[in-house]
Specification:
This protein has 288 residues and is an alpha/beta fold. It is built from nine helices and 15 strands. The radius of gyration is 20 Å and the shape is globular.
Length: 288
């Protein structure tokens, strides 16, 4: 009998599929390899007798780590030690927007440095920002509610406090945080396999490896013509541009540039956009 379920774990070619509150260990049909696709964590699948027969249509898919059907991507960003890399953060927010994944920012180490300026940049951009202060009684209450009945992933630079936040959200996960090497700015914790953790109040979360500047294009490659749509704060201004094909980088009569000069769009966000636009212009056709 054909059953349907969601892949919650992948280890060494074995897929663990949750269906009707039970976990089934499955293998994938060889035909998937011939078709150039692979089942991945988060996929809804049809399976029979321990074999995945069909991957149901995906809402979205990121390549590294391989995850499908994400509702939210939560970026854990420390305000200091290490200092936030806004260009890298903006690149990943753009990827989330491109993939129709809701981006959310969780600011950590707010007891060490003021976070208001950073928070305001992204709130002005229309992105939900949660300030995590471990001096409060329940610092992750807002994040916990956000995860309910959704598939979410946490990501962030090593040392930003991602694993600490995960453990705060639900200590039963027992994800080791390790000691941070100040010299390298990296944490010792690494995620060795893809897995969704089922939440007792509904929904799933996935832990992902820390991201780096070298892996950005492995998530999604965005064409220069599509990039402005990945900066949601541009939308209400772009129709007012003088030229229909305005790149929003240097043209006279650009309403987006005017909004930057008037303080309606954060300068750092527009700078990230311009740098990403130049990088997208330089992409070769085979890279797309």
């Amino acid at each position: 009998m054909i059953q349907t379920g969601i892949i919650v774990k992948l280890i060494g070619g074995l897929y663990f599929v949750e269906s009707s509150d039970s976990i089934f260990e499955c293998k994938a049909r060889g035909v998937f390899r011939k078709e150039g696709i692979s089942p991945c964590v988060g996929d809804n699948v049809e399976f029979k007798d321990g074999v995945i027969e069909k991957i149901l249509p995906r809402k979205n898919h990121i390549i590294r780590p391989p995850l499908a059907n994400l509702d939210r991507l939560i970026f854990v960003v420390s305000v200091t030690e290490p200092a936030p890399n806004l260009l890298l953060l903006d690149k990943f927010i753009a990827v989330a927007e491109y993939q129709n994944i809701e981006p959310v920012i969780a600011l950590t180490k707010t007891d060490l440095e003021n976070c208001e300026e950073l928070r305001d940049v992204y709130k002005k951009a229309g992105i939900d920002v949660y300030v995590i202060d471990y001096r409060e009684k329940d610092p992750s209450a807002g994040i916990r509610e956000l995860l309910k009945d959704r598939i979410s992933a946490f990501t962030g630079n090593s040392g930003a406090g991602k694993s600490t936040l995960l453990n705060e959200v639900c200590g039963d996960f027992n994800i080791l945080t390790g000691e941070i090497s100040k010299k390298l700015g990296r944490g010792k914790h690494t995620t060795r396999h893809s897995e969704l953790y089922k939440l007792p109040w509904g929904g799933y979360i996935a832990d992902t490896p820390g991201f780096s500047t070298f892996e950005t294009n492995k998530y999604s490659v965005i064409r220069k013509e599509e990039l402005a749509d990945c900066f949601r704060e541009f939308e209400r201004f772009s129709d007012g541009c003088k030229f229909r094909d305005c790149s929003h980088t240097k043209e006279k009569g650009c309403r987006v540039i005017q909004a930057v000069s008037e303080g309606d769009i954060p300068v750092s966000r527009h700078e990230s956009y311009c740098q990403m636009y130049e990088e997208a212009k330089a992409l070769k056709e085979w890279e797309l």
